[in-house]
Design brief:
GO terms for molecular function: DNA binding; zinc ion binding. InterPro entries: DNA_Rcmb_RecR, Rcmb_RecR, Rcmb_RecR_Znf, TOPRIM_dom, TOPRIM_RecR. The chain is α/β, with parallel strands linked by helices. It has eight helices and seven strands, in the order αααββαβαβαβαβαβ. The chain has helices spanning 6-15, 23-35, 38-54, 71-74, 89-96, 126-133, 150-163, 189-197; strands spanning 56-57, 64-65, 79-86, 103-107, 141-144, 170-173, 200-201. The strands form two sheets. A five-stranded mixed beta sheet has the order 4-3-5-6-7. β5, α7 and β6 (170-173) form a beta-alpha-beta unit. α1 (6-15) packs across α2 (23-35). The N and C termini lie far apart (59 Å). The mean pLDDT is 90.
């Protein structure tokens, strides 16, 4: 693809590195930004820069946050006895969009995948166990809301083993309203909401 400007070519190159963005789409975006008001392009650049350099992670649940503790963990109206364990921040967003869940979260930061070299020590599992076993813990139930893939099931099994001996803490999994091999972020809100409400409690 030939470009009339090296600056446009560089912009297209950077935009096309984003997931799901090919070079043709990147070119359309670059040309749109070029024709837009200067303030529009500047605001976009500023928002992206602030997001990248100023965003942090919650000290409790490891979700993305604007402060040391995220808004969900800091919310006293949420049910802190109920912790939903997910692999990714996108899953938090997906579950929150159902409007069915009023507890708090714990973000693992991925799933166990030996093929990709990801083991339990690479995830936020120890902090979950510490959170559940703390003397002042309010935790009464852990919901394993992990995508039902082979890696997801392996991770859920490992977590169940780590948490099963904790007194007064029940372990449950979301109901299989999510298809096998599916990803939570792509599930429709009704299916995902029912999966949370109709979760299955493990023995």
């Amino acid at each position: 693809m030939e470009f009339p400007s090296k600056l446009i070519e560089n912009a297209v190159g950077e935009l096309s590195r984003l997931p799901g963005i090919g070079r043709k789409t990147a070119l359309r975006l670059a040309l749109h930004l070029l024709k837009a008001e200067m303030d529009t392009t500047a605001s976009l650049a500023e928002a992206l820069a602030k997001m990248r350099f100023e965003i942090t992670y919650c000290k409790t649940c490891h979700s993305i946050s604007d402060a040391e503790e995220c808004g969900i963990c800091a919310n006293k109206l949420r049910d802190h006895s109920l912790v939903c364990v997910v692999s990714d921040v996108r899953d938090v967003i997906a579950i929150e969009n159902t409007g069915q869940y009023k507890g708090v979260y714990h973000v693992l930061g991925g799933v166990i995948s030996p093929i990709e070299g990801v083991g339990p020590s690479d995830l936020h599992i120890d902090s979950l166990v510490a959170r559940a076993s703390a003397e002042d813990s309010e935790l009464r139930e852990v919901i394993l809301a992990i995508s039902p893939t082979m890696e997801g099931d392996t991770t859920a099994f490992y977590l169940s083993r780590r948490l099963r001996d904790l007194p007064n803490v029940h372990i449950s999994t979301i109901a299989r309203g999510i298809p096998m091999g599916g990803e939570l972020e792509y599930a429709d809100e009704i299916t995902l909401g029912r999966s949370i409400v109709d979760r299955l409690r493990q023995a």
